[in-house]
């Protein structure tokens, strides 16, 4: 009986020791914190530069003013011109990200020096049509798809341009005979890509098309011209290519991914 008890005790000790050893052999898995995912949500400001191109088509409409001014055969096309120049400006906006979608609004303004001219078909040997654009501004909504720190987006909204239109003589093409300063309103669409190289700083490249439609411009005689006012219908479109740098103030920092 004593031998049986000793044998039972030995077997019990053997099994309990093996179980303890097995428990000691299994190590707990380390807890890995979820990786943060970049978020585009937040306010931002920035600067941009690039190039601008415009296309303007002039026509003499059939109006009482033009008939009195010696254009009884109106309306006729009097030519058109294009121009290109630099642009530089600033922008500000807000993004809100939900999943991969990024919704936002943005306003921007650009300074430029767009100029163009052509011979006026009413008197091609004597007169020239001239256009100058000094500034643009847009206000648009944006919809984008985020791939972590990369953002691909489209935008659309309203556009504004600060223009001058004038007719000059062929002998002195930069001296206005009849002139109009004009504020033009239209619409715009655009597409772009942006990349955040830190949590707050990002770079972007963007293309915009601005359409200002056709508007009647009344050119007033200048002191050096013994002439009357005259009206032209001017159709205007503008294309912009921009590269920019944005600083994002953020909203709540990076989002933590959940698994």
Describe the structure.
With 259 residues, the protein is mainly beta. It has one domain (37-256): Porin (Beta Barrel), CATH 2.40.160. It is 11% helix and 65% strand. The strands form 2 sheets. Strands 2-3-4-5-6-7-8-9 form an 8-stranded antiparallel β-barrel. Strands 1-10 form a two-stranded antiparallel sheet.
Task: Sum up the structure in keywords.
mainly beta, 2 helices, elongated, Porin, eight-stranded antiparallel β-barrel, 65% strand
Query: What radius of gyration results from the CA coordinates?
Result: 35 Å
Helix content: 10-25%
What spatial order of strands do you see in the largest sheet?
Answer: 2-3-4-5-6-7-8-9
Structural class by helix and strand composition: mainly beta
The domain count comes to 1
User: Mean pLDDT, nearest integer?
Assistant: 87
CATH-level-2 architecture: Beta Barrel
CATH topology: Porin
Q: Determine the number of helices (DSSP H or I, runs of at least 4 residues).
A: 2
Gross morphology is elongated
| Beta-strand residue fraction | over 45%
For the record, what CATH class applies?
A: Mainly Beta
Uncertain residue ranges: 1-8, 10-16, 18-26, 254-259
H/E element sequence: HEEHEEEEEEEE
What's the arrangement of secondary structure elements?
Layout: H1 2-25, E1 36-37, E2 42-60, H2 64-68, E3 76-98, E4 101-119, E5 127-147, E6 150-169, E7 176-196, E8 201-221, E9 230-250, E10 255-256
Antiparallel strand pairs: 1-10, 2-3, 2-9, 3-4, 4-5, 5-6, 6-7, 7-8, 8-9
Protein name: Outer membrane beta-barrel protein
Keywords: Cell outer membrane, Membrane, Signal
Signal peptide: 1-21
């Amino acid at each position: 009986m004593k031998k049986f008890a000793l044998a039972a005790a030995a077997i019990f000790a053997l099994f309990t020791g093996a179980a303890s050893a097995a428990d000691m052999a299994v190590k707990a898995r380390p807890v890995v914190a979820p990786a943060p995912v970049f978020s585009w949500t937040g306010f931002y400001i920035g600067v941009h530069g690039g190039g601008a191109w415009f296309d303007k088509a002039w026509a003499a409409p059939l109006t009482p003013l033009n008939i009195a001014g010696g254009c009884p055969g109106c309306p006729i096309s009097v030519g058109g011109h294009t121009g290109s120049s630099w642009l530089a400006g600033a922008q500000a906006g807000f993004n809100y990200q939900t999943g991969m979608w990024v919704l936002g609004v943005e306003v921007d303004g650009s300074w430029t020096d767009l100029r163009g001219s052509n011979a006026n078909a009413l008197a091609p040997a004597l007169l020239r049509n001239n256009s100058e654009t000094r500034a643009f501004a847009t206000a648009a909504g944006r919809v984008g798809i985020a791939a972590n720190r990369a953002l691909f987006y489209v935008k659309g909204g309203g556009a504004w341009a600060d223009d001058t239109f004038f007719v000059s003589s062929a002998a002195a093409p930069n001296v206005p005979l009849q002139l109009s300063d004009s504020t033009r309103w239209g619409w715009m669409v655009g597409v772009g890509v942006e990349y955040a190289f830190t949590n707050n700083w990002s770079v972007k490249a963007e293309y915009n098309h601005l359409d200002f439609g056709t508007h009647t411009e009344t050119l007033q005689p200048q002191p050096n011209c013994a002439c009357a006012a005259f009206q032209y219908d001017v159709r205007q479109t503008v294309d912009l290519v921009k590269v920019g740098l944005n600083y994002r103030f953020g909203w709540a920092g990076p989002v933590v991914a959940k698994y």
